[in-house]
Amino acid sequence: MAGGHRLFTLDTWKNWAKSGKAEVIQTIKQLLKEDSDNPGLSQPSVCKDLSRGLYEILSAVLRGNLTREHVRPLLAEMLNWHPDLASQLVEVATLLDLEASTIDRLSRNREQLMMLLKSLDIDKMMKERLEIETLGDYGIVKNKKNFHTKQIKVKTKLFYKQQKFNLLREETEGYAKLVTELNQEITERVTPQSIIQVIRSLIGGFNLDPNRVLDLILESLEARPSQHQFYTGLLNQYPCESATISELLGFKLNNYASNGKDTKGIYTTIALLIQANILQLSDIYSWLTPEDSSMIECHLKEESEAKEIVRKLNVISTKDKDKDKEKEQERQEEEGLKEDFKNQEVYLSNQKIQLCIALIEVGAWEHFVEISSRFPDYYLMSFPPVSQALCQLVHATIEPIYREVCNLPSRLKASRVKPLDNPLAPQPARKFSDVCSTVFPMLLVLGPHLYHDPGLMCKVLRVARVALKETPVGEDGERSNFYFEFLSVLDEVLLPSLSMLDSNPCLAEEIWETLKIYPYQHRYRLYGRWKNESFTQHPMLMRRRAWLLKKAKFIMMRITKETIKPVSRGIGKLTHNNPGPIFHYILIQVQLYDNLIGPVVDSFKYLTSLSYDMLGYCIVEILSENKDRTAHEEMIISPWLQSLSSFCGTVFKKYVTDLGGILQFVANQLKSEKSIDLLILREIVQKMGGTDTLEDLTAEQLSAMCGGELLRREAGQYQQERNTKRSSLRLKEALLENDLAIPLLLLMAQQRSSIVYNQTESPHLKLVGKLYDQCQDTMVQFGSYLFQVVTIEELSDRLPSIGSLLSDYHINADVAFFLARPLFINMLNSRYDELRRQDRGEKKLTIEQKKDRYIQACNEVFEPIVSSIQPHFSIKVWEDMDPSFFLTFWTLTMSDLEVPHHMYEKEIKKIDANVSPSTNKRKKETDRLLALKEKLQEEEKRQKEHVDRVYARLQQEKDGWFMLRGARSPKNDTVTAFLQLCLFPRCTFTALDAIYCAKFVKMLHNLKTPNFSTLICYDRMYCDITYTVASCTEQEAHRYGRFLLGTLDTVMHWHASQQNYEKECANYPGFVTKYRVSRQEANDYVDYENYRHVVHKWHYKITKALVTCLESGDYIQIRNAILILQGILQRFPVISNLAAVIEKRIEKVKNEERNRRNDLYVLANSYSGRLKGAKPNLMPETDFHIVPKRPQAAKVVNGASEKSSSSATNDVKSSGEVGDQNEKIVKMETSETTNGELEGKEDREAKEIKKESASKVSKEKKEASEKRKSEDREIKKEEKEKKDKDKKEEREEKPKKRSKESKKSKYDDEDYADPERDDRALVGGGAERERESSVTSNASSASNKMEPPESSRGSKRRKTEHNSKSRKEEGSRREHKHKERSKSKEPEGETQTKESKKEKKERKRDRSQDEAVDSDLKRKKDDRIKSNGRSEDDHKHRHQTHRADSEEYHDRYSSDLRGKDYREYEYERDYEKHPPSRHKRKN
């Protein structure tokens, strides 16, 4: 048949799916129609016949033009068209088999042809006509040798064996009649009752053996199982016992097994008899082989082998030969696993397995369960025929309800499953309750072996999906029984069965469509059992998991940016049905290598929805593990957590995944007071919501954030909205659906307050600060995101009131107002719009009328809010500050105070630059840019009008903000309350709030707010920032630096020129130094030069505080000081000598922290470079303010004389530069340093010894001339003599002064100030006490948590002031001489005067007096040594360090004093002579 005319062409096979199949069907049907009687016979001279068509179809398979999967459905359908087609098909196949065996090129697809025929259930015909070798090679017969032997025996029996019968004298006619009666057509007239009478008659009439009659009845039942109801009814009436039947059947089973007969019929007979209770299962079970124990041993052996494979998976071999052996062993195991499924001898020789199959096929479900209970779970199901038979039973049971609720379109013809024709079988399910009671128990017995029938899995899932959607939920939230029963089916059956399939994404999506009806809590529980338990309960799943992990390791070793496409396909195929183990391994790799995050996320693009949901669970599971989240001795967050957080944000943004689980995990961690996992939420909000923190923004971006919504979006953020629009919406929906938006905010706010105390037992402060910053930044970031995407109506329904936030939730005011501020603004705008609409001429309203409406709206909206927040603070607070001011401060933002015109102009210019001449290609983009430009201009105009309305409201309200409180100072308590409750909490909240606080203070000044002192406010900010710096976290230090920079911008703007000062400060209430009940006078205000002195003091104080922190040795203080210095570098330092001091301390930090704390070294090195770059812009102190000339000796000798001070003051007066007020500044500055250096009696004696030793050491150095050395020695002796006399006088007058000092202490405390005495220059020297006080007294008397009083130093200074008065006259002569000596040490430009004879005599006399003083001092020293019981050597050793320090101090500053400004010398001496330990004791 190879030649001749062809019915089909090659195009028929190529276009099989489109037109080829239809063409073949039409041709075959036409051939059948032409000769329907004998279609298989070839006709002469006719080329187109049926045999030719079948030959060409099978030949296409043999030649590889078609696959057997394409042809099998067609042939199976064709067999039903005519009863002779099967015979004709086998004939054609026999011919093709002969051709394939002789032609080599056809032999390759010979197996495909045989497998195709084998799948058509025509084995009987194939055994009759195909060659024995073919039958054996392709498994059509089990053993070709036995088959050949059996064939010979059958032929011999048929043709050569002589029949012997009637050995028991039985008559053959009786058996013939019996067989005829038993096998007749069963009609309504033929009943078991009638037949039993016939059988009795035959037995009696023909002397038949009853057992042989029983055997014939069983044979008839075996031959006609479809008539089982008739035969079972007959056997019920036949007089026989169960034991007799079991013996007959047992004998048959053994006979069939030995002869190789087909035993399927006898097992079906046994099953039917057991189902009809004719045969007891226990009677026949003892005849079955093998023993139960041997079957259980096989199961245990298989389980141990699977565990061994899993164990070897974790063993790493370092030898190549072992790897080769392992590869070979793996290949053999995989082949063996496949052979186990294909080898039918495993279960065909097992009679118990065959009986189970028969029981399931006839529907004897209860009896099968009885046998199954004898073995381990799922053991019987591990045999494919058993599980397949049970799948068919489930098909028949679920078919009716599946057709009812899941109808396919009419044009699709689906094959229906016929129900079992057995009234004793399980009844078909017609309701969901029937599914729950009948189908689910079968599925639970089936377990993971349901994978043999994916179609049944789809049926079950679709029925369950409809049931879950239609089943109503009870009023109290109760679910139906079906809801929870199906969870068990998913857990034990469907998900494990999915793991056994090879890359079936359709079924995974089908499972997800049903599974997503459940909340994530149920889903995650299922995922956990699927991933961690199911893979350990079944040997086949253990093998499967080991194979998957090997594939995953292979793929992960090859993942790069260049191999994403092939790798993503491989990962997709592995995770379609087994996502859990794969994701677990991938996440472990991501934690170890953060550079894998990008490629791994990109390779997830082919995942199913079920895989994405499983990925979310795996992330939560890893985060829930009890792993250490800190590293390097609890100083930093562990890298694995940082990598996993970054991975979460990236993968959740790119792919649609349920976020409920991860968000609830973060909320649970916050409830447990563990804030370290907020890093995950921060990454998710940043990458999905496009909302970043405001900490890393540039100055221009911060300015843009002060504008409207459009400007903020265009110029204020790095993220582009179009990239996060969808992911942002998904995040919003997840937060609202799980009701986690507001709870997360409140939990973060509460955790922020307690994180310092409750985070861990003893963490490093660096980690605590980082966690605090993370909590703060995440809260602000998350809140900002919510305010952008969630409507105000949704927020107002969920957010508690401001009073509830402050009291019930115990949230600080800064956070409470941050949360409630958008609601307040929305209420205000809504009310303002309502008031405008009430006017008929809304569009014709003037600007003033709009301002009046706005003020009216503010009063109506804010009055109830003021009354609600007032009870939550102390009554004393509102004595200094009105609650309306408090609310105004916390509700305003930068957008209310100013319009960033320069940013609007910049964006508009950028748009103009991008607008090109209109072309067809760019016309759309040009139109968009022009529309954007118009929107920006309109927004700028609207914001300008809004700012004007806000200032109009503030102008009206300002008079009632601060109260004048009787005779007390009206300023100090007011400023203290303002700083504590408003300024300091908000300036460290965000970077934008830091700028807002600086602008708000300037706004208060510009509004000329009554009873508010701008000077005192700035003075309290600058005078002691040590505690503020030391208590800041890293981000707070950045924000505090921005705040100081903003205030310094204002201060230095006024300092820059007298014109600015006169225009913006002169005659302003903020610069009043005396507060009167009556009208202010002209001399009550600070003039420009005094303001410059005060600014210098503020710079000095900032320098002093920051240097104290730099010298503390504490990590936090050093870091914060450098960060603040970096933040204010534009405005500080501006004075060269202060910059030199700071630079010196920075260099010291660099030297100390190198190779010790490298992060501090890097910070210090960075600032050092920037400071060096700013040096050309520094100015000397004389340019910063007018520096009065004063004697150098006043700083060398403690207790300076009045003569030196007065002479310096006279010099200032003669210059005409400064008035009487500068004289007081000079005196205060002189006493500032000298007073601070006085100590007790013992300290002064130690100083004398120290100076004596310094003079002795200096003699050994010959760097200068002998004359200079002798003069220095004489000066020192004079100092000693004067000190000794002062001590004596002090000891004598001390008892007398004690009573006087106690009376004066009250007034002395008020007059005392340390650096703040500079401010006395502001008070013009007046002594009025009529409701007036100085700036300095107020600043020093008011208490603040950020600036505690320094009472310990004050007592020393008061004592020094008193002693200095008693020593003025006595020390005037030596002071004058000291002045002359110091003048001789000035720079080289000045000539040295010659000494007169009188001066030489005086110096000689002074030398003799000094020698007497030295001898007296030595005698006292010896007496003290004797009284202490110490030798002189001990004291020398004790003060050895002090001598070295004195020597260094003398050498450094005796030469540097020349040409150095007095203030610089004072500042350097203060810090060189007194190490940082002094400041620590003070603090």
User: What is the percentage of strand-forming residues?
Assistant: under 5%
Low-confidence stretches: 40-47, 337-342, 966-970, 1192-1250, 1256-1261, 1295-1395, 1426-1432, 1434-1483
Query: Which structural category do the helix and sheet elements fall into?
Result: mainly alpha
Number of helices: 74
Averaging pLDDT over every residue, what do you get?
77
Helix content: 55-70%
What does this structure look like?
The protein has a two-stranded antiparallel sheet with strand order 1-2. The chain is mainly alpha-helical and 1483 residues long. A hairpin with a 4-residue loop joins strand 1 and strand 2 (636-637). The model is unreliable at 40-47, 337-342, 966-970, 1192-1250, 1256-1261, 1295-1395, 1426-1432 and 1434-1483 (pLDDT under 50).
